[in-house]
TrEMBL record:
Protein's recorded name: MoaF-like domain-containing protein
Taxonomic path: Bacteria, Pseudomonadati, Bacteroidota, Flavobacteriia, Flavobacteriales
Entry annotated with the keyword ATP-binding: no
Residue span, MoaF-like domain: 34-114
Alphabetized UniProt keyword annotations: Signal
Keyword Transferase (UniProt): no
Transmembrane segments: none
Signal peptide stretch: 1-19
């Protein structure tokens, strides 16, 4: 019985310590500041995107959104692995929430968008693309 109580107490202490440990996934970071690149979606056109001062700016180069003005939003990011980053941002004016995974090792991007979330019929979309013309001006 004493052994069981000791194990339970040890387990509770371990879980409490683990729960209080900050990991990189817990931190709001802007790891891509100073980076810019173009990515080409498989079916939806190409985008120039740049990261600076805790914000990202993107502009459609071609596709159905070509010609629209550049958009700038605050972003959050975390490093998943060497050369792989998870990035998200919120576009309140268009009711879109965007999550992207950039893999600079394979020069690919995976995208999830919740579009028009305030509408009666929100849209959830997934896309893939190819990253090109990477520039890194981190200081």
């Amino acid at each position: 019985m004493k052994k069981s109580i000791f194990i339970v107490i040890l387990l509770l202490i371990s879980l409490t310590t683990f729960a209080q440990t900050n990991t990189s996934l817990d931190k709001e970071e802007h790891l891509l500041d100073g980076t810019s690149f173009t990515f080409q979606y498989q079916n939806a056109g190409a985008i120039d995107i740049s990261f600076a001062h805790d914000s990202l700016t993107y502009k459609w180069l071609n596709g159905r959104n070509a010609g629209k003005p550049a958009q700038t939003y605050p972003y959050k990011s975390t490093k998943i692995d060497s050369g792989i980053y998870l990035v998200n941002w919120h576009e309140p004016d268009t009711e879109n929430f965007v999550t992207q995974v950039y893999n600079f090792n394979s020069n690919t991007v995976k995208v999830s968008v919740i579009s028009k979330y305030g509408n009666e019929k929100p849209f959830l979309g997934f896309q893939s693309g190819v990253i090109e013309h990477i520039q890194n001006n981190k200081q």
